[in-house]
Design a protein that fits this description.
2 domains, 5 strands, 10% strand, 216 residues, two-stranded antiparallel ribbon, 3-stranded mixed beta sheet, mainly alpha
Length: 216
Amino acid sequence: MYRSPVDISRIFYGTTPAGDVPRKYYRFAGMRFSDIELKQFFVAYILLTVAFTNLFSFPDIASWPFNFPIAGIAVFTGFFLHELSHKYVAQRNLLWSEFRYNLNGLFLAVAISVMGFIWAAPGAVMISGYVDTKLNGKISIAGPMNNLFFSVIFFPLYLYNHAIGGLLVTVNLILAAFNLIPLGPLDGRKIWNWNHLYYLLAVAGVIFMFLMLEMF
């Protein structure tokens, strides 16, 4: 999920929850990252990994060390690369685009995960610039398509090891399904407004993968 648009000056001058003014910028994989963005991505990644480890380990806390790397992979593919997909498409279209975390949402996710369920609002990619309905839809669909892609990639692992592969496939599918809800600021609403067919194809892909889990 991403939020658009924002006032770029508020980010650069530190008047948003983003924090300090960026001091350094880095280029990687065709994208531009600020030092603040990288720090916030790292914090969000660690806290989400802890939250999902708690979830996977409930109620057997002794399995926590085993589940931590699995949760790390699930969060990296399901959340981190989901957000980077939005960012990549936005920056390829010459828009300003950076991730900003939601610390309250992250701490809430960690707190409730110890009870065996999770609700995460870790943050979003912030975008500024002119975004019409078509571009809005293209940026939005990149995230769920990332999750659907990794659910397919992890499916052979699921066939080999239901426990580990099942977690990785399910996390990506749940994140795709949630973000495809066509309501509020979620990706689904923007995709639907852009192209009904692409939206239905994305939903069909997620349903198909859920059915594959049930069949195998």
